[in-house]
Amino acid sequence: MRRPQFVRLTGILLLVIAAASCSVVQQGTEILAQTGKISESDKNSIIKTSEAIRSTFADITEEEEYYIGRSVAAMILSRYPAYNNDGLTRYINTVGNAVSYFSNRPEVYAGYHFLILDTDEVNAMAAPGGFIFISKGLLKRCKDEEMLAAVLAHEIGHVTAKHGLQSIKKSRLIDAFKILGTEAVQRYGSEQLAQLTGIFEGVLGDVVESLIERGYDRKYEYEADRQAVAITVRTGYSPAGLTDFLGTMVGDKSTASGKGWFKTHPSPEDRLERVKAEISSVKSIPLRAAVRIARFKQNVGNLK
Amino acid sequence: MGVKKIPSEVRMRKPPVSFLAVVLCLGLALVLLAETLVVKIQTTQVRKDPKFYAQVVAVLKAGETAERIGSQDGWFQVKTTKGIVGWVHSSAVETRKFNLFAMDKNLKTQASASEVALAGKGFNKQVEASYRAKHGEISFAWVDKMLEIKIPPAEVEDFLKKGKLGEFRGSK
Asked: Does the interface ipTM go beyond 0.90?
């Protein structure tokens, strides 16, 4: 009677000690660092010894994603000029931030930011880290706030699922992670920096090619559409905004000549079918509200 | 009488043993619950309630830690190192993980994501500066302008309210 109980209790006790020691390692090093017994880098190296090394896009830190995103955004803006309209930009950012609250990843390194591109090409793009672009041509196609919210939610879906980062060639990441090494130095030496900059250029090339030239894998677009339905419904928008938007693209010969959205996205018919199926599984579908139709007209109605 | 004494002794012995087991289980549960969260974004706000537009009670920067004391719909209730209790969104933080069976330093030749984040290494400001020095044709002016566009949560709340969205949506 006593022996099995003793064994069981010992087992429980060991589990408690093991679990507790995880936080003890960390708390202990924190205390030692704070009291000056060990340096900050010592603290980090004690903590790091038990962590896994980086190998895939999922190991890219939020800060790195932000820096990749900044440069990708700059490259997009070197191809398309920004549409300079403070009022309209603020409206787009408010809709975008509102829907981002209802996404799976409302917090990104430096927040979500939205900008209109001054082109009649129908297009929308999301750089890693939450830099989202929507073309004037696409905005003109939106007839109400539900359509705009759906397009922005689709782009947020790409950021949430890190589709941009997934287009980076794995060999490039492996090279970068190798250079980074274990030494917690704050600044790189010139040789390391030159190597890393070269890899960084390659990384940007991979992401920009996916965003502007080649487009994402179809499955990523379908995933972003599913996200868009979920996000808009959670926000309280009618998911019909997405089907309405895709509907405007069906059979459109004017822009289907190979530019923007048409070049980089699967056929609108194909997406429409899937999105309709997705919506049919939504239990409670929000309806459009007159107040939203009115404020969209007020903000976007005069766009030429 | 003597026969009756034995069961009472058994009763006396048993409770402390099971009590100890319960205490240990509770201890284990508490240790597991009291997770340390690390902020992985530039800054995040600790809010009074689990909502983006709730009152801000503290601000945490990248790398700062807080103890998780509860969770609800994608939000973590936390206690900061200064003892302030509030809510942070789960997407702003990560759980600090340890593997006690991988303590051998010699096995490690590369850095993990969180130590790179801690050291501010990886693709960082310095790499961007080096890239920009090579590519003068790429302007970051609009990227920086984009980052200046900030919609305060109170404004988003007002937008949701007026648009009958989020928690302010009508039944129809």
From this structure: no
